[in-house]
Amino acid sequence: MAEHAEFLVVGGGSTGTAIAYYLSLVAGKEVLLLEANRVGSGQTGYSTAIIRLHYSTPEVARMALESYRVFERFEDLVGGSCGFRRVGFVLAVPEGLREGLERNVSMLRSMGVETWAVSPEELKDLMPWVDVEGIAAAAYEPGSGFADPTETALSFARAAAENGARVVEGERVTKVVVEGGEVKRVLTEKGEYVPGTLILATGVWTQQLASTFGRTVPMKVLREEIGVFTRPEDFRGEHPVFADLGMDFYMRPHGEAETYVGSIEPPPTALASQDEGGRPISRETYMAYHERISRRFPAFERSPHQPRGWTGLYDVTPDWHPVICRDPEVSNLIWAFGLSGHGFKLAPAIGMSVRDLALGKRPEFFEPDHFAMERFARGRGIITTYGIGVVS
Ligand SMILES: Cc1cc2nc3c(=O)[nH]c(=O)nc-3n(C[C@H](O)[C@H](O)[C@H](O)COP(=O)(O)OP(=O)(O)OC[C@H]3O[C@@H](n4cnc5c(N)ncnc54)[C@H](O)[C@@H]3O)c2cc1C
Protein backbone atom coordinates (compact mmCIF):
# COMPACT_ATOMS: atom_id res chain seq x y z
CA MET A 1 0.00 0.00 0.00
CA ALA A 2 1.52 3.33 -1.08
CA GLU A 3 2.09 5.90 1.64
CA HIS A 4 1.28 9.59 1.16
CA ALA A 5 4.14 12.08 1.70
CA GLU A 6 3.16 15.72 1.25
CA PHE A 7 6.76 16.91 0.76
CA LEU A 8 9.07 14.11 -0.33
CA VAL A 9 12.74 15.15 -0.47
CA VAL A 10 15.19 12.71 -2.08
CA GLY A 11 18.87 13.06 -1.09
CA GLY A 12 20.42 13.60 2.33
CA GLY A 13 23.38 15.84 1.45
CA SER A 14 23.78 19.45 2.53
CA THR A 15 21.14 20.42 -0.06
CA GLY A 16 18.42 17.89 0.80
CA THR A 17 18.84 18.15 4.57
CA ALA A 18 18.66 21.97 4.46
CA ILE A 19 15.51 21.73 2.34
CA ALA A 20 13.97 19.20 4.74
CA TYR A 21 14.87 21.41 7.69
CA TYR A 22 13.36 24.65 6.31
CA LEU A 23 10.26 22.78 5.15
CA SER A 24 9.94 21.10 8.56
CA LEU A 25 9.68 24.52 10.21
CA VAL A 26 6.38 25.03 8.41
CA ALA A 27 5.23 21.52 7.55
CA GLY A 28 6.63 19.31 10.37
CA LYS A 29 5.57 15.72 9.95
CA GLU A 30 4.42 16.23 6.39
CA VAL A 31 8.09 16.16 5.36
CA LEU A 32 9.81 12.90 4.41
CA LEU A 33 13.51 12.75 3.49
CA LEU A 34 14.77 9.60 1.78
CA GLU A 35 18.51 8.99 1.65
CA ALA A 36 19.93 5.93 -0.16
CA ASN A 37 22.88 5.54 2.21
CA ARG A 38 23.66 7.77 5.19
CA VAL A 39 23.07 11.49 5.64
CA GLY A 40 26.16 13.34 4.38
CA SER A 41 27.65 10.26 2.69
CA GLY A 42 27.45 11.74 -0.84
CA GLN A 43 29.63 14.54 -2.20
CA THR A 44 28.89 16.60 0.92
CA GLY A 45 31.20 14.28 2.82
CA TYR A 46 34.08 15.01 0.39
CA SER A 47 33.63 18.78 0.43
CA THR A 48 36.23 21.24 1.65
CA ALA A 49 33.21 23.30 2.78
CA ILE A 50 34.62 26.78 2.28
CA ILE A 51 32.25 29.54 3.28
CA ARG A 52 32.89 32.87 1.54
CA LEU A 53 30.79 35.72 0.26
CA HIS A 54 32.69 36.77 -2.85
CA TYR A 55 30.39 36.26 -5.84
CA SER A 56 29.72 38.37 -8.89
CA THR A 57 25.94 38.26 -9.23
CA PRO A 58 23.65 39.88 -6.64
CA GLU A 59 21.43 36.79 -6.52
CA VAL A 60 24.16 34.35 -5.48
CA ALA A 61 25.88 36.94 -3.27
CA ARG A 62 22.58 37.42 -1.41
CA MET A 63 22.21 33.67 -1.02
CA ALA A 64 25.79 33.37 0.27
CA LEU A 65 25.19 36.21 2.73
CA GLU A 66 21.91 34.83 4.05
CA SER A 67 23.53 31.40 4.40
CA TYR A 68 26.55 32.91 6.14
CA ARG A 69 24.23 34.46 8.74
CA VAL A 70 22.91 30.96 9.42
CA PHE A 71 26.37 29.34 9.64
CA GLU A 72 27.52 32.11 11.98
CA ARG A 73 24.73 31.42 14.50
CA PHE A 74 24.02 27.82 13.58
CA GLU A 75 23.63 26.52 17.10
CA ASP A 76 21.05 29.19 18.00
CA LEU A 77 19.16 29.13 14.71
CA VAL A 78 19.20 25.46 13.69
CA GLY A 79 20.63 23.61 16.66
CA GLY A 80 23.69 21.36 16.80
CA SER A 81 26.95 22.35 15.20
CA CYS A 82 28.16 23.12 11.68
CA GLY A 83 31.83 23.36 12.69
CA PHE A 84 32.25 26.88 11.29
CA ARG A 85 35.78 28.30 11.66
CA ARG A 86 36.28 31.96 10.86
CA VAL A 87 39.84 32.08 9.46
CA GLY A 88 39.25 34.69 6.73
CA PHE A 89 39.16 34.35 2.95
CA VAL A 90 41.48 35.79 0.31
CA LEU A 91 40.84 35.76 -3.44
CA ALA A 92 43.93 36.68 -5.48
CA VAL A 93 43.68 37.63 -9.17
CA PRO A 94 46.04 38.54 -12.03
CA GLU A 95 45.92 41.94 -13.76
CA GLY A 96 43.18 41.02 -16.27
CA LEU A 97 40.69 40.29 -13.46
CA ARG A 98 41.51 43.20 -11.15
CA GLU A 99 38.67 45.47 -12.31
CA GLY A 100 36.11 42.69 -12.02
CA LEU A 101 37.31 41.90 -8.50
CA GLU A 102 37.00 45.54 -7.47
CA ARG A 103 33.48 45.68 -8.96
CA ASN A 104 32.46 42.60 -6.99
CA VAL A 105 33.94 44.02 -3.78
CA SER A 106 31.93 47.25 -4.26
CA MET A 107 28.73 45.29 -4.84
CA LEU A 108 29.33 43.16 -1.75
CA ARG A 109 30.15 46.21 0.37
CA SER A 110 26.90 47.86 -0.76
CA MET A 111 25.14 44.75 0.61
CA GLY A 112 26.84 45.21 3.98
CA VAL A 113 29.55 42.56 3.57
CA GLU A 114 32.80 43.27 5.40
CA THR A 115 35.29 42.94 2.54
CA TRP A 116 37.86 45.08 0.79
CA ALA A 117 40.41 44.94 -2.03
CA VAL A 118 44.05 44.69 -0.99
CA SER A 119 47.27 45.37 -2.92
CA PRO A 120 49.99 42.70 -3.20
CA GLU A 121 51.95 44.53 -0.47
CA GLU A 122 48.97 44.51 1.89
CA LEU A 123 48.44 40.83 1.10
CA LYS A 124 51.95 40.13 2.38
CA ASP A 125 50.96 41.71 5.70
CA LEU A 126 47.96 39.38 5.90
CA MET A 127 49.85 36.26 4.77
CA PRO A 128 53.60 36.75 5.33
CA TRP A 129 54.41 33.39 3.66
CA VAL A 130 53.06 34.44 0.25
CA ASP A 131 55.11 35.20 -2.88
CA VAL A 132 52.96 37.82 -4.65
CA GLU A 133 54.48 37.36 -8.13
CA GLY A 134 51.72 37.70 -10.76
CA ILE A 135 49.07 38.86 -8.25
CA ALA A 136 47.55 42.24 -9.20
CA ALA A 137 45.00 42.49 -6.38
CA ALA A 138 43.15 40.42 -3.84
CA ALA A 139 39.80 40.56 -2.09
CA TYR A 140 39.79 39.93 1.64
CA GLU A 141 36.90 38.84 3.86
CA PRO A 142 37.90 38.53 7.51
CA GLY A 143 34.64 36.83 8.55
CA SER A 144 34.70 33.91 6.11
CA GLY A 145 36.23 30.48 6.60
CA PHE A 146 35.05 26.90 6.39
CA ALA A 147 32.75 24.47 8.15
CA ASP A 148 32.35 20.74 8.70
CA PRO A 149 30.09 19.52 5.88
CA THR A 150 29.02 16.18 7.36
CA GLU A 151 28.30 17.71 10.74
CA THR A 152 26.21 20.39 9.02
CA ALA A 153 24.09 17.86 7.11
CA LEU A 154 23.64 15.73 10.23
CA SER A 155 22.59 18.79 12.25
CA PHE A 156 20.06 19.86 9.60
CA ALA A 157 18.66 16.32 9.47
CA ARG A 158 18.47 16.06 13.26
CA ALA A 159 16.75 19.46 13.54
CA ALA A 160 14.27 18.49 10.81
CA ALA A 161 13.47 15.29 12.70
CA GLU A 162 12.98 17.27 15.92
CA ASN A 163 10.40 19.34 14.03
CA GLY A 164 8.53 16.15 13.16
CA ALA A 165 10.01 15.34 9.72
CA ARG A 166 10.80 11.73 8.97
CA VAL A 167 14.42 11.22 7.94
CA VAL A 168 14.95 7.76 6.50
CA GLU A 169 18.43 6.46 5.70
CA GLY A 170 19.19 3.36 3.65
CA GLU A 171 16.18 3.72 1.34
CA ARG A 172 17.05 4.31 -2.33
CA VAL A 173 14.49 5.68 -4.76
CA THR A 174 14.50 3.40 -7.80
CA LYS A 175 11.85 4.98 -10.01
CA VAL A 176 9.72 8.08 -10.35
CA VAL A 177 6.40 7.48 -12.11
CA VAL A 178 5.09 10.49 -14.04
CA GLU A 179 1.68 10.41 -15.68
CA GLY A 180 -0.39 13.23 -17.11
CA GLY A 181 2.15 15.91 -16.16
CA GLU A 182 2.30 14.83 -12.52
CA VAL A 183 4.48 12.64 -10.31
CA LYS A 184 2.06 9.89 -9.31
CA ARG A 185 4.32 7.53 -7.42
CA VAL A 186 7.85 7.20 -6.12
CA LEU A 187 9.17 3.65 -5.90
CA THR A 188 11.98 2.69 -3.54
CA GLU A 189 13.89 -0.48 -2.72
CA LYS A 190 11.52 -0.89 0.24
CA GLY A 191 8.16 0.56 -0.71
CA GLU A 192 6.11 3.10 -2.57
CA TYR A 193 5.05 6.69 -1.89
CA VAL A 194 2.51 9.09 -3.35
CA PRO A 195 4.06 12.55 -3.07
CA GLY A 196 2.22 15.86 -2.82
CA THR A 197 5.43 17.50 -4.05
CA LEU A 198 8.61 15.64 -4.99
CA ILE A 199 11.93 17.44 -4.48
CA LEU A 200 15.06 15.95 -6.05
CA ALA A 201 18.30 16.93 -4.29
CA THR A 202 20.35 14.03 -5.58
CA GLY A 203 23.50 15.85 -6.77
CA VAL A 204 25.67 13.85 -9.17
CA TRP A 205 23.08 11.04 -9.18
CA THR A 206 20.31 13.26 -10.57
CA GLN A 207 20.58 11.99 -14.17
CA GLN A 208 20.20 8.40 -12.95
CA LEU A 209 16.86 9.23 -11.35
CA ALA A 210 15.73 11.57 -14.14
CA SER A 211 16.22 8.72 -16.63
CA THR A 212 13.57 6.67 -14.82
CA PHE A 213 10.96 9.10 -16.15
CA GLY A 214 12.60 9.81 -19.49
CA ARG A 215 14.32 13.11 -18.75
CA THR A 216 17.80 14.42 -19.49
CA VAL A 217 19.23 17.08 -17.20
CA PRO A 218 21.82 19.72 -18.22
CA MET A 219 24.61 18.48 -15.99
CA LYS A 220 27.94 16.69 -16.23
CA VAL A 221 29.95 15.03 -13.50
CA LEU A 222 33.51 16.29 -12.98
CA ARG A 223 36.18 14.78 -10.76
CA GLU A 224 37.78 17.17 -8.25
CA GLU A 225 40.84 15.94 -6.37
CA ILE A 226 41.81 17.31 -2.98
CA GLY A 227 45.42 17.05 -1.81
CA VAL A 228 46.42 17.05 1.86
CA PHE A 229 49.72 18.78 2.61
CA THR A 230 51.62 18.99 5.89
CA ARG A 231 53.12 22.44 6.44
CA PRO A 232 56.69 22.85 7.77
CA GLU A 233 57.27 23.95 11.38
CA ASP A 234 57.59 27.64 10.49
CA PHE A 235 54.21 27.69 8.66
CA ARG A 236 51.90 26.45 11.38
CA GLY A 237 48.55 27.67 12.69
CA GLU A 238 45.34 28.26 10.76
CA HIS A 239 46.01 30.40 7.68
CA PRO A 240 43.17 32.15 5.81
CA VAL A 241 41.42 30.27 3.02
CA PHE A 242 43.25 31.31 -0.16
CA ALA A 243 42.00 31.08 -3.76
CA ASP A 244 44.33 31.94 -6.65
CA LEU A 245 42.61 32.50 -9.99
CA GLY A 246 45.91 33.05 -11.84
CA MET A 247 47.37 29.74 -10.71
CA ASP A 248 44.10 27.80 -10.54
CA PHE A 249 44.17 26.45 -7.02
CA TYR A 250 42.56 27.07 -3.66
CA MET A 251 43.62 25.98 -0.22
CA ARG A 252 42.22 25.92 3.29
CA PRO A 253 43.74 24.93 6.60
CA HIS A 254 42.87 21.70 8.35
CA GLY A 255 44.00 22.08 11.93
CA GLU A 256 47.32 23.65 12.88
CA ALA A 257 49.61 21.79 10.50
CA GLU A 258 47.67 20.61 7.44
CA THR A 259 46.29 22.30 4.34
CA TYR A 260 43.74 20.98 1.84
CA VAL A 261 44.35 22.00 -1.79
CA GLY A 262 41.95 21.79 -4.74
CA SER A 263 41.53 23.28 -8.21
CA ILE A 264 39.22 26.12 -9.23
CA GLU A 265 38.31 24.71 -12.61
CA PRO A 266 38.90 21.00 -13.13
CA PRO A 267 40.23 20.23 -16.66
CA PRO A 268 37.99 18.61 -19.34
CA THR A 269 39.81 15.32 -18.62
CA ALA A 270 38.08 15.36 -15.23
CA LEU A 271 34.84 14.04 -16.76
CA ALA A 272 33.78 11.24 -14.42
CA SER A 273 31.04 8.75 -13.59
CA GLN A 274 28.79 9.37 -10.60
CA ASP A 275 30.32 6.56 -8.54
CA GLU A 276 33.98 7.65 -8.47
CA GLY A 277 33.80 9.73 -5.29
CA GLY A 278 36.11 8.74 -2.44
CA ARG A 279 39.02 7.34 -4.49
CA PRO A 280 42.52 8.48 -3.47
CA ILE A 281 44.11 11.48 -5.22
CA SER A 282 46.38 10.59 -8.16
CA ARG A 283 50.13 11.12 -7.78
CA GLU A 284 50.09 13.33 -10.88
CA THR A 285 47.52 15.77 -9.46
CA TYR A 286 49.18 15.82 -6.05
CA MET A 287 52.55 16.72 -7.58
CA ALA A 288 50.93 19.40 -9.79
CA TYR A 289 49.31 20.97 -6.69
CA HIS A 290 52.60 20.76 -4.83
CA GLU A 291 54.36 22.62 -7.62
CA ARG A 292 51.71 25.40 -7.69
CA ILE A 293 51.44 25.95 -3.94
CA SER A 294 55.23 25.93 -3.58
CA ARG A 295 55.52 28.72 -6.13
CA ARG A 296 52.92 30.79 -4.25
CA PHE A 297 53.97 29.76 -0.73
CA PRO A 298 57.64 28.68 -0.95
CA ALA A 299 57.51 27.11 2.55
CA PHE A 300 55.58 24.21 0.95
CA GLU A 301 58.79 23.19 -0.88
CA ARG A 302 59.82 21.70 2.45
CA SER A 303 56.61 19.73 3.03
CA PRO A 304 56.56 15.94 2.46
CA HIS A 305 55.74 14.78 -1.10
CA GLN A 306 53.88 11.59 -0.20
CA PRO A 307 50.51 11.84 -2.03
CA ARG A 308 47.58 12.05 0.37
CA GLY A 309 44.05 13.14 -0.42
CA TRP A 310 40.77 12.10 -2.02
CA THR A 311 38.50 12.49 -5.00
CA GLY A 312 35.10 14.18 -4.89
CA LEU A 313 32.64 14.87 -7.68
CA TYR A 314 31.00 18.05 -8.89
CA ASP A 315 27.51 18.14 -10.45
CA VAL A 316 28.28 20.83 -13.02
CA THR A 317 25.77 22.72 -15.19
CA PRO A 318 26.81 24.65 -18.35
CA ASP A 319 27.09 27.98 -16.44
CA TRP A 320 28.41 26.50 -13.17
CA HIS A 321 25.29 27.58 -11.30
CA PRO A 322 22.58 25.41 -9.80
CA VAL A 323 19.21 24.41 -11.11
CA ILE A 324 16.62 25.35 -8.45
CA CYS A 325 13.16 25.42 -9.94
CA ARG A 326 9.75 23.93 -10.39
CA ASP A 327 9.68 21.62 -13.38
CA PRO A 328 8.05 23.28 -16.42
CA GLU A 329 6.18 20.11 -17.40
CA VAL A 330 5.58 18.14 -14.22
CA SER A 331 3.43 20.16 -11.86
CA ASN A 332 4.53 18.69 -8.51
CA LEU A 333 8.26 18.30 -9.16
CA ILE A 334 11.06 20.58 -7.88
CA TRP A 335 14.73 20.27 -8.82
CA ALA A 336 17.71 21.32 -6.68
CA PHE A 337 20.93 20.03 -8.27
CA GLY A 338 23.94 21.23 -10.27
CA LEU A 339 25.65 22.96 -7.35
CA SER A 340 28.79 22.98 -9.53
CA GLY A 341 31.34 22.60 -6.75
CA HIS A 342 30.34 25.64 -4.69
CA GLY A 343 26.97 24.71 -3.23
CA PHE A 344 27.76 23.82 0.36
CA LYS A 345 27.96 27.45 1.48
CA LEU A 346 24.60 28.14 -0.21
CA ALA A 347 22.72 25.26 1.44
CA PRO A 348 20.68 27.32 3.94
CA ALA A 349 19.50 29.77 1.24
CA ILE A 350 18.71 26.89 -1.12
CA GLY A 351 16.71 25.28 1.70
CA MET A 352 14.70 28.47 2.23
CA SER A 353 14.18 28.98 -1.52
CA VAL A 354 12.97 25.44 -2.16
CA ARG A 355 10.63 25.70 0.84
CA ASP A 356 9.12 28.79 -0.80
CA LEU A 357 8.82 27.11 -4.20
CA ALA A 358 7.18 24.08 -2.58
CA LEU A 359 4.65 26.33 -0.84
CA GLY A 360 3.86 28.11 -4.12
CA LYS A 361 5.63 31.32 -3.04
CA ARG A 362 8.21 33.48 -4.81
CA PRO A 363 11.69 32.74 -3.44
CA GLU A 364 13.26 35.62 -1.53
CA PHE A 365 16.64 35.79 -3.25
CA PHE A 366 15.92 35.42 -6.96
CA GLU A 367 13.24 35.57 -9.64
CA PRO A 368 11.58 32.15 -10.02
CA ASP A 369 13.17 31.64 -13.47
CA HIS A 370 16.69 32.73 -12.44
CA PHE A 371 17.91 29.18 -11.81
CA ALA A 372 15.43 27.52 -14.17
CA MET A 373 16.54 24.47 -16.09
CA GLU A 374 15.28 25.99 -19.38
CA ARG A 375 17.78 28.88 -19.17
CA PHE A 376 20.35 26.81 -21.04
CA ALA A 377 18.07 25.93 -23.96
CA ARG A 378 17.11 29.60 -24.17
CA GLY A 379 20.76 30.70 -24.23
CA ARG A 380 20.33 32.59 -20.94
CA GLY A 381 23.01 31.05 -18.77
CA ILE A 382 24.25 33.11 -15.80
CA ILE A 383 27.23 35.31 -16.71
CA THR A 384 29.86 36.07 -14.06
CA THR A 385 33.07 38.08 -13.67
CA TYR A 386 35.48 35.16 -13.69
CA GLY A 387 33.79 32.92 -16.28
CA ILE A 388 33.33 29.28 -15.41
CA GLY A 389 34.73 27.46 -12.36
CA VAL A 390 33.91 27.24 -8.67
CA VAL A 391 34.85 30.87 -7.95
CA SER A 392 32.31 32.90 -9.84
C1 LIG B 1 35.87 17.92 -3.41
C2 LIG B 1 34.77 18.94 -3.22
C3 LIG B 1 35.06 20.16 -2.66
C4 LIG B 1 34.05 21.11 -2.49
N1 LIG B 1 34.33 22.28 -1.88
C5 LIG B 1 33.34 23.17 -1.65
C6 LIG B 1 33.61 24.37 -0.93
O1 LIG B 1 34.74 24.61 -0.54
N2 LIG B 1 32.57 25.23 -0.68
C7 LIG B 1 31.31 24.98 -1.15
O2 LIG B 1 30.43 25.82 -0.96
N3 LIG B 1 31.04 23.86 -1.84
C8 LIG B 1 32.01 22.95 -2.09
N4 LIG B 1 31.74 21.79 -2.76
C9 LIG B 1 30.40 21.57 -3.27
C10 LIG B 1 29.46 21.12 -2.19
O3 LIG B 1 30.10 20.31 -1.27
C11 LIG B 1 28.31 20.40 -2.84
O4 LIG B 1 27.71 21.25 -3.80
C12 LIG B 1 27.25 20.02 -1.86
O5 LIG B 1 27.75 19.44 -0.68
C13 LIG B 1 26.39 19.01 -2.60
O6 LIG B 1 25.41 18.60 -1.78
P1 LIG B 1 24.18 17.81 -2.35
O7 LIG B 1 23.34 17.57 -1.19
O8 LIG B 1 23.60 18.54 -3.51
O9 LIG B 1 24.80 16.46 -2.95
P2 LIG B 1 25.28 15.16 -2.15
O10 LIG B 1 25.98 15.49 -0.91
O11 LIG B 1 26.00 14.31 -3.14
O12 LIG B 1 23.92 14.49 -1.72
C14 LIG B 1 23.08 13.79 -2.60
C15 LIG B 1 22.52 12.63 -1.83
O13 LIG B 1 21.52 12.01 -2.59
C16 LIG B 1 21.54 10.63 -2.30
N5 LIG B 1 20.89 9.95 -3.41
C17 LIG B 1 21.26 9.93 -4.70
N6 LIG B 1 20.40 9.19 -5.43
C18 LIG B 1 19.46 8.76 -4.57
C19 LIG B 1 18.31 7.95 -4.73
N7 LIG B 1 17.97 7.43 -5.92
N8 LIG B 1 17.54 7.68 -3.64
C20 LIG B 1 17.87 8.20 -2.42
N9 LIG B 1 18.96 8.96 -2.23
C21 LIG B 1 19.75 9.24 -3.28
C22 LIG B 1 23.02 10.32 -2.20
O14 LIG B 1 23.26 9.13 -1.47
C23 LIG B 1 23.57 11.56 -1.53
O15 LIG B 1 23.69 11.41 -0.13
C24 LIG B 1 32.73 20.82 -2.93
C25 LIG B 1 32.44 19.57 -3.48
C26 LIG B 1 33.45 18.64 -3.63
C27 LIG B 1 33.11 17.30 -4.23
Radius of gyration: 21 Å
The SSE string, one letter per element, is EHEEHHEHEHEEHEEEEHEEEEHEEEH
- Choose one word for the global shape: globular
Q: Per DSSP, what share of the residues sits in E-state strands of 2 or more residues?
A: 25-35%
* Alpha carbon gap, first and last residue: 47 Å
Low-confidence stretches: none
The counted number of beta strands is: 18
Percent helix range:
25-40%
Say which molecules are bound, naming each kind only once. Answer: flavin-adenine dinucleotide
Overall SS class: alpha/beta
Look at the structure and give the mean pLDDT: 96
User: Helix count, per DSSP?
Assistant: 9
In this structure, how is the largest beta sheet organized?
Answer: 8 strands, mixed
What's the short version?
This protein is of the alpha/beta class and 392 residues long.
Please characterize this protein's 3D structure.
Helices cover 25% and strands 26% of the residues. It contains nine helices and 18 strands. The protein has helices spanning 14-27, 58-72, 74-77, 98-110, 120-126, 149-162, 206-211, 283-296, 347-358; strands at residues 3-10, 31-35, 50-51, 89-93, 116-118, 137-141, 145-146, 166-169, 173-179, 182-188, 192-200, 220-230, 241-244, 249-254, 258-262, 309-316, 323-326, 333-337.
What is the element layout, followed by pairings?
Layout lengths: L2 E8 L3 H14 L3 E5 L14 E2 L6 H15 L1 H4 L11 E5 L4 H13 L5 E3 L1 H7 L10 E5 L3 E2 L2 H14 L3 E4 L3 E7 L2 E7 L3 E9 L5 H6 L8 E11 L10 E4 L4 E6 L3 E5 L20 H14 L12 E8 L6 E4 L6 E5 L9 H12 L34
Parallel strand pairs: 1-2, 1-11, 2-8, 4-13, 11-18
Antiparallel strand pairs: 3-7, 4-6, 5-6, 9-10, 10-11, 12-15, 12-16, 13-14, 14-15, 17-18
Helix pairs in contact: 1-6, 1-9, 2-9
